[in-house]
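Kindly go through the entry underneath: sequence plus fold tokens. Please state briefly how this chain folds according to its tokens.
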Amino acid sequence: MDFTKELQKLEKLERKVFSLKPHWPKKVNNFQINPTLEIFLSNWKFSQSRTNPKKQKEWLLVWKKQGDVSIQAKPASKEELLALKMVAENISLEQAAQQGNISVKALELNLKRAAKKGIILKPTPKLKRNTRIFKNTKNIDQKFIISDTFTLQWHITNVCDLHCKHCYDRTRRSPFTLEQGYKVLDGLERFTRTNRVRGHVCFSGGNPFLSPHFFKLYKRAEQKGFSTSILGNPVSREDLKKVIEIQKPGYYQVSLEGLPEHNDYIRGKNNFSAVIKFLKILRELKISSAVMLTLTKENMSQILPLAKKLRGHAEYFTFNRLSQTGEGEGLGLPKKEDYQRFLEEYIKASETNPIIGFKDNLINIVLERENDKLFSGCTGFGCGAAFNFVAVLADGEVHACRKFPSLIGNILKQSLQEIYDSKMAKRYRRGAKECDGCSLRHACGGCLAVTSGCKKDILKDKDPYCFK
């Protein structure tokens, strides 16, 4: 049977799309169909072979992704056709869920997948940084300006099975009721939809597993389509399996404070061996693992030996500098010049140890000096306090950053949007005025928690460890 006419039609569409020079919108308020997209119902299955196709109807999509000169030509899946129908006919998630007996979460994921492929254009996120503070920085990558994800670091309980010597907060806080917890997640859902961003919930504590509501709250987060992660202590294999049955976390982060003797001095007897055993369980269950260390003058020299020891145990290892607040006020930080030399050694070690990760914003000073590519900073935006994340404590207090007192509201009394738009949140987002004009301002901003712990004015003074 002759298929050449339809093949010629398909190739004509490909040439048409290739020649297009579309006006890509700078701002998208709702999902839109890619302006270059062509859809073609073929009687032949050209996706398998164009020289010997099978006689079978097939919807074909031809399009060009934004920022890409090459064309895409692929068969349309049922999910992609549904996404296109929803966008073309302006069908809401709730309407589509009701009509098709599909969950809102599944439909949201479907739209996101279609947008990732470039078939539709996703709405422009509303979480945008004030570019005036980057006034002397040229050619800033937009990834530092607009966030498409918002993280709620949720400390659902202060109850903990450890008593670390650098703990930021051992106060007793009235914990959420389950209903209040559900309302927090409802509020996050409204916030993410209003601001056109993906929601992420990072469950922490204390030890989040010691909250009687942990599994129910984790389940509700999954039902709302939020990605999840856990910052906690070692727990049983059975508890991990219960988590996986709901939704595998993006990662599970535990802490070590140096080699065994020093770690157990800080975190308690036999903690080091318990963490190593737990990392093995995480690996067996295929849960990505991260190890975080709080850097002090006492353990800085142990960091690289620990990173070497953790190879084969963890997928990721990094550190934060100590915030001298709470019980950590009695511990010390290294000298500035010693810390600078350490960063240089740490970066060098990362070239041969794949688990070493970058988190401290000041690493970018060394990278810039060496003409290396900058990394994205502590939260992907340098300091992202009150920008692409906030910390919610067990009594509803919302802080710009968990590592130091930075109260911006109470989620049990205010909406997340009200808190985000508050005067105090904007002040923390702005950061230190002394950083204005710095070529690294967009990817750095220092560490407000360290500045605060050193008794400096975080809204005025730059990070006291800055050596640029």
Notes: The CA atoms of residues 376 and 443 lie 6 Å apart. The mean pLDDT is 92. The radius of gyration is 25 Å. DSSP finds 15 helices and 16 strands in the chain.
